[in-house]
Amino acid sequence: MKRTLAVIVAAAALVVSACGSKEDLGGSGQQAASGEVVVGSADFTENKILAEIYAGALKATGAKVSVKSGIGARELVVKALQDKSLGVVPEYTGNLLNYFDKTNTKTSVEDVYTALKAKTPAGLEVLEKAAAEDKDVLVVTKETAASGVKSIADLGDGKYVLGAAGEWQQRWEAKVKELYGVTFKEIKTTDAGGPVTVDALKNGTAQVANLYTTSADIKVNDFVELDDPKSMYPAQNIVPLLRSDAVDAKGKDALNKVSKALTTENLAELVKRVDVDKETIANVAADFLKAVQL
User: Closest by alpha carbon to 222, among 201, 249, 251, 205?
Assistant: First the structure.
């Protein structure tokens, strides 16, 4: 839900990060300077970190690179790639596939990625997917997990209150019952993986919460992620989406090397360093690149 870019930001403007100049690339048709690779990002911490990492990896190959942050809807991202005002963006396999194929029903990691490669429009391409995922996940406290709740299937019939964003009930209530036979005593509307949801789980007004796998709150609060063996939530692996002619072979190799190094755990740590420890995105991205020798 959080990573569905179409609902992240209502604004259509692109707000430029420190290494770019201010200009509207939201489908403006204003092409990047000749030979320059413009890396775009959505307006949340994780995506901004990924964009800076991509930019740093490309710069290491000798490419001329700038970063534009704060893209709104996914349709603006795709349009900006196609009109050549953007070159590369960090994306999420499941949501991107659903954007390109409204009839998609695939949810597993490999099925989603294979279908995404087939459905990506001509002129665009996705590179290698990372092991890192930022996907919906149901979590419980350590105490609830210790009572025997390790999987979504262990939640049972009407035993617990769930805290989740408003759209969760419409999107997932029937699916969790169909796949796991699980119902909730109450589905309490909180927020999209934010402080209201976290507080509800901490204070006991909800015993289960919908968060995201790279959320810093999971580690900070010792929450336990529930297994989803039937893949109710679709795969959301991090993947570079790019205009095919925007990046040369060396650049694509560098981006693939980034993907190979990204895990859900190390990405969550990067997000924590920015959101919790208040480090800068630029420093966190530089540290990651140094660690993977890019």
Answer: 201
Q: Read off φ and ψ for residue 207, nearest 5 degrees.
A: -105, -10
Bridge partner residues of 136 (DSSP): 212
DSSP for 170-185, written as a single string: HHHHHHHHHHH--B-S
- State yes or no: pLDDT of 57 exceeds 90: yes
Alpha carbon distance 111, 249 (integer Å) = 26
222-234 average pLDDT score: 96
Identify the DSSP state of 5. Answer: G
Task: Check residue 225 and give its pLDDT.
Answer: 98
- Helix, strand and coil percent figures for the chain, each rounded to 5: 40, 20, 40
Domains, the chain, with CATH or none:
5-133+235-291 (3.40.190.10), 136-225 (3.40.190.120)
Residue 223: is its pLDDT beyond 80?
yes
What is the number of alpha carbons within 13 Å of residue 121 lying toward its C-beta? Answer: 12
Amino acid identity of residue 140, one-letter, is V
> CA of 262: how far to CAs of 131, 165, 193, 228, 270, in Å?
6, 27, 22, 21, 10
